[in-house]
Amino acid sequence: xxxxxxxxxxxxxxxxxxxxxxxxxxxxxxxxxxxxxxxxxxxxxxxxxxxxxxxxxxxxxxxxxxxxxxxxxxxxxxxxxxxxxxxxxxxxxxxxxxxxxxxxxxxxxxxxxxxxxxxxxxxxxxxxxxxxxxxxxxxxxxxxxxxxxxxxxxxxxxxx
Length: 160
Prior knowledge:
The chain is mainly β and 160 residues long.
């Protein structure tokens, strides 16, 4: 057995005996053992706080609690993110596609910065932001809950 085979066998044994979930199909991760999953194991669902078309896959944490969270958002081509803000730091990494993103209270495509796959954005709590996706875009967000979203213009909030 070569070194790579030994490492993979040890990893498989550790994951298999951890007692915790090993993929998102068993709910989000809450710190029990290791979590290893592939993109096809993510469970996508609609998001009540975003316009129709956006999907979320919660990877770890309870967004309503004061605990770490990680989730992915999938935006369809042509999706618009109206000006909004969050109660905690937002840390975004673009996984695929391209996110056009900016700071401000008014939606203005000309003010955005194009973030391709691998691009990163960090925004402080309470600071307004907006964006759009010209093509299907997947991004990963992580931070510390509780998490939420408030729209600068309440008419943009789909929960209304």
